[in-house]
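Appendix C: a fully annotated inverse folding record. The material below is reproduced so that readers can follow the format used throughout the book. The structure is listed first as tokens, followed by the designed sequence.
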């Protein structure tokens, strides 16, 4: 019988990081591929394993806001107020970087992304490690982010790092990224935390990347993508078209006789299941994945953003 993989203890995980090795970590958003952010050789291994261009900056994960001055300078008061309100949680703050942050982490930019993830295991790990963890999502470049330990194993196969198994991710899509290094602040990536929640702290907050915005690989037009071609379809089109070689990601319920999956029609629940559903549908090796159109509603901004990029990058 095959043995089930066992999650390492926190002290084994800390030891792995201290040796300069990679460790997959659970967060509330998606699993991360982590390395000691102060060890440039370890950080370079992240880029090698992901196949990610080395000038794409990484987010550094920290245990709490008290660590901000170790990683950033010119920290505005709003950063602390946001951290108080939303950390631990799915919000990444872009700030001017501290001169001692290795260039490998920031892709040579003078800003840094920082967040405190809301996962009990990873928070304990961060406290025992007593440092920062540079971690992108634990998937190969451009592919679907993992929301379970099994997804990480499937993504990297024999090359998979040690994985701290924290179960399925609660939020399911990547953190909201807000750039505080310029005024007015700007949302660089939509996420679970919405613009209207941030506005009281950041008057004039902009949304959508501007022409001069720094590199955000999650902002590439094609990203988070399955290998099977994906198409958006209305419920009406789905019910009136009998193309046989497609599988379907439906809202609420799968129409009778169709192959595929349905996700709840509330945005947060849909987000939680989206990436696992795309992986399952991709593995069905159909000619095409049809996605039932989701509502064009402020609640759905982050989900619709991920769907758009997945469609653009699919196939
Ligand atoms: O929820 C998340 O944010 C997950 C978990 C693991 O924390 N992480 C994640 O990392 O999604 P990644 O690398 O897949 O996406 C982080 C995004 C990238 O698009 C990167 O370019 C952007 O953050 N980023 C990091 N540092 C930045 C900076 N200094 N300026 C602008 N964008 C930055
Ligand atoms: Mg990613």
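Designed amino acids, in order:
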């Amino acid at each position: 019988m095959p043995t089930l993989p066992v999650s390492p203890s926190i002290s084994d995980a800390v030891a792995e990081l201290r040796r300069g090795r990679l460790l997959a970590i659970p967060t509330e958003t998606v699993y991360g591929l982590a390395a000691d952010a102060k060890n440039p050789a370890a950080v370079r291994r992240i880029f090698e394993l992901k196949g990610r261009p080395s000038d794409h900056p990484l987010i550094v994960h920290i245990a709490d806001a008290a660590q901000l001055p170790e990683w950033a300078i010119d920290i505005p008061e709003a950063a602390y107020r946001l951290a108080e309100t939303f950390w631990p949680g799915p919000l990444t703050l872009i700030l001017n970087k501290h001169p001692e942050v290795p260039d490998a982490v920031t892709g040579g930019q003078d800003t840094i992304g920082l967040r405190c993830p809301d996962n009990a295991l990873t928070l304990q790990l961060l406290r025992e490690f007593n440092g920062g963890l540079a971690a992108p999502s634990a998937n190969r470049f451009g592919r679907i982010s993992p929301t379970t330990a099994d997804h990480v194993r499937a993504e990297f196969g024999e090359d998979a790092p040690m994985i701290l198994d924290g179960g399925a991710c609660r939020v399911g899509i990547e953190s909201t990224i807000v750039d505080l290094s310029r005024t007015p602040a700007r949302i660089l990536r939509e996420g679970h935390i919405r613009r209207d929640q941030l506005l009281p702290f950041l008057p004039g907050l902009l949304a959508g990347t501007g022409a001069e915005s720094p590199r955000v690989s999650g902002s590439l037009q094609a990203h988070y993508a399955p290998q099977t071609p994906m198409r958006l379809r209305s419920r009406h089109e789905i019910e009136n078209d009998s193309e046989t070689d497609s599988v379907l990601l439906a809202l609420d319920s799968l129409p009778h006789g169709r192959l595929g999956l349905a996700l709840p029609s509330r945005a947060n629940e849909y987000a939680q299941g989206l990436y696992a559903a795309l992986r399952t549908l991709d593995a069905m090796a159909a000619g095409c994945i049809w996605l039932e159109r989701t509502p064009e509603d402020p609640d759905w901004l982050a989900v619709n953003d991920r769907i758009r990029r997945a469609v653009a990058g699919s196939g």
